[in-house]
């Protein structure tokens, strides 16, 4: 045992504290190495993220520049093709070859088609043109509107989409979702972020079909070019067949019916139709024919005709188009006057969406897309007043029967009364009830006794105000879509309306009429069904025996207000009929269309044997 013990005493052993120290030093060295490596990785990550952020900023800047270049390119291309089309039309009018089919300018996805917030145009497509319009939106394809909605409220009517021809015009108007961001350069989403072309294309087909703002005139112009691109039929066709090719094509999604708009002119008996060189009329086979319609004058314009209006003596017709207003001699068809505000901005479009003569014929009032109302001295060819106050496009104008006040309706949801002599605003009727927000005003009218004001709007409503007290009287609800036109009957007992729901309605004014009884409210007496597309304009004949309506289906229809039946359908335009007006003194009526024409027609009460 002693030997073993001695042997263990002779074996050397390292101190325990020394080994622990060595291990700790090794761990510390490894930790420092790993910490240094992690720091290097963090630095590399920060540099990488900064580089990525810079690249994203550069890509966004390039994308924004591309959007701007795309918009500028399209605008230049559109102006170029419109100018070529205008020159070709002018050459054709002077006896040259017919205008060949031209390319249809397709608006780039997400970039919009003309002024926003417009009918149709009323006036839709204008904005329009239809608008309204929007007025294409409403006009041609309203404002459109606008037609566009074209765009009122900021789309139209076109004079679109627009409602009118394009939405109107009419557009306001009524602007579509996805409007431009600050500066109007890049389409923005609901969060204020730029929308990419891919997002625009993906969102284009989502959700319910959006109603046009007031049809806009730009939309109407595009529809006209699209129709030309579709081709023209040969010269072997009859005038009726040629007119039918552009006028009788059923609208997409419209169910065929037995209405006049769906009838084949070739199947109608000769005594129940009448045709001209490029127009025709079909009469209702179920009732006696009691009208004869003839084309008196065709008035060519260089842009969409958003509005037409006769003077009170019936001698003159005013037409409104892009940047200019013309006054024509009804007897000769010659242009008597050409009105253009030299102080208006020179860039871009400036469609005249509403015109109205004073009762004495001394003044002509015009309303335009720049939110201004201009009072022209007709004899002096000069501006008497410029009325400012509206915050959106002007879609409708009317004079009080005594000529002292001007009534205006705008996409800004207001109806305003102005003093003719001093140009001051007298009243402002605001649509601030609990109805839908999209309540841009598309059409306004004075009652024959000057005591009532009626206004149609995009929220499907018609509103009445008392002029003397400036108080609201009633909100009339009944149409299933935006109302683009209103007109009082000559006796003041009824109110007529036309809507994007393709119908007209006749309303009994009840206690608000001249012979109304206390307690009677406004009720719908008749619903007139027959148009295939948006009803953009309505009017009564001076004797109250006829109602005339113009539609995006390119037709004009005469109705008997007592029976609600249509007497005849006129097809004489190649685009939306944005505006109709009847002469106060003669059996003439006028039409304005997205096909860049206004036409004066005669309607004669003449029974024809069945």
From TrEMBL:
WD repeat residue intervals: 352-386, 387-428, 434-475, 476-509, 528-569, 570-610
Region span, Disordered: 93-250
Localization, UniProt: Nucleus
Compositional bias ranges of the Polar residues kind: 234-245
Coiled-coil regions listed in the entry: 17-79
Highest taxon, organism lineage: Eukaryota
Chain intervals with Low complexity compositional bias: 117-130, 218-232
Record's keyword terms, sorted: Coiled coil, Nucleus, Repeat, Repressor, Transcription, Transcription regulation, WD repeat
Gene Ontology terms: cellular component: nucleus; transferase complex
Residue intervals of the Transcriptional repressor Tup1 N-terminal domain: 19-94
Family (UniProt): Belongs to the WD repeat TUP1 family.
Protein's recorded name: General transcription repressor
